[in-house]
Amino acid sequence: MSRPHVIVLGAGVSGLTTAIAMSLAECRVAIYAAEGPAQTTSALAAAIWHPFYQAPDFVYLARARQTYATMHRLSSDTSSGVVMKALTEYFRHDAGMPWWAECASGLKRLPQAEVPSRFACAYRMDVPVADAATYLGYLMNMFLELGGQYEQRRVEDPMTLLEHADFVVNCCGYGSRQFGDDDLSLSRAVVLRATRDDAVRGCFIDDSDPAMPTYVVERDDDIVLGGTADPDLTSTVIGERQIEDIIRRCTHLCAGVAALRVIDTRIGFRPMRRAPRVARDDSHSRLLHNYGHGGGGFTLSWGCANDVVRLMGKTSTDAS
Ligand SMILES: Cc1cc2nc3c(=O)[nH]c(=O)nc-3n(C[C@H](O)[C@H](O)[C@H](O)COP(=O)(O)OP(=O)(O)OC[C@H]3O[C@@H](n4cnc5c(N)ncnc54)[C@H](O)[C@@H]3O)c2cc1C
């Protein structure tokens, strides 16, 4: 039987992982993307594995677990841009172990003496963190080495491509709104980049308030300080007060943040949906969707890519 021909739309983390998973499942795959990896929302992400502002959910858990395992394995390749980091997460209410605890290795509760008084408890665990630019480039190379083709091209209507392919997979992030999904909205995210400094070692998160996610992410070349969740805000102007507020909140998680030199401010737009759309299209069974991952595009990526492969009736193979 000949290998199915698949066109994947989008070259962010969803498109690239989907295209690799399809290639590993013996498909002939081409990516069409309006913008290359470096220009995507994905390239702006802190890119830490974490179920940001997510209520307990079995489907989410299964996808996040698969992604954790694959990124953990990729971290053994130094060129992947993925490293394992110690993450300390602080909670304002003590609800016991985090619901996603089984995904993360080395998870332990911190002694109360190590928890700042404004928090109720804290857990420490090892999680994958990617330098987004390096990781996306690495994924693109992996895809091309598997025989994939890449074309920079905006697509007005994915349905028209069904004449040329056995399957089309829409991984266009917020771009999917132009294909008619009114359930898709955006949430503005502001992050700061600071130079590395010994004062900050590891990663820290307080995700207790979905309107104000706060995180310090130590990466190989920089430290990311976040963040905000501004629903439907499209302005790219950020006030000094907002920047000061991010630094103030981050300093509560790690006092060393006060010593950092901020070198850059970045604004991105998370593609929000009640749940990611990983499904066959209602009217065209050969059109599949994988978008709307909100603040968890990296955290869910490999799990969602494997689900798309299964939707095609194929068996998924691990990328690492
Ligand atoms: C500042 C910030 C920090 C974040 N931090 C994290 C984090 O730490 N961990 C985490 O898991 N998630 C994080 N996220 C969320 C994550 O970045 C997103 O969920 C993820 O990037 C979405 O990826 P995507 O591939 O679906 O979409 P995108 O990265 O937006 O890629 C979409 C692709 O589709 C293409 N496209 C769009 N329209 C068309 C069209 N008509 N024709 C052809 N191509 C088209 C685009 O050109 C692009 O290539 C963060 C987000 C932001 C903004």
* Class by SSE composition: alpha/beta
Beta-strand content bin = 25-35%
Q: Sketch the major β-sheet.
A: 9 strands, mixed
Which ions and ligands are bound to the chains? flavin-adenine dinucleotide
At the fold tier of CATH, the topology name is Rossmann fold
CATH architecture term: 3-Layer(aba) Sandwich
Number of domains: 1
Shape: globular
Poorly predicted sequence stretches spanning 5 or more consecutive residues: none
Please tell me the overall pLDDT: 95
Our Rg estimate from Cα atoms comes to: 19 Å
What's the N-to-C terminus distance?
26 Å
Sequence of secondary-structure elements: EHEHEEEHEEEEEEEHEEEH
Which oligomeric state applies? single chain
List the helices and strands and how they pair.
Blueprint: E1 5-9, H1 13-24, E2 28-33, H2 58-74, E3 82-91, E4 105-109, E5 121-130, H3 132-145, E6 149-152, E7 167-170, E8 185-194, E9 203-206, E10 214-218, E11 223-226, E12 230-231, H4 240-253, E13 262-272, E14 277-280, E15 287-291, H5 297-311
Parallel strand pairs: 1-2, 1-7, 2-6, 3-9, 7-15
Antiparallel strand pairs: 3-5, 4-5, 8-11, 8-12, 8-13, 9-10, 10-11, 14-15
Helix pairs in contact: 1-3, 1-5, 2-5
Bound molecules: flavin-adenine dinucleotide.
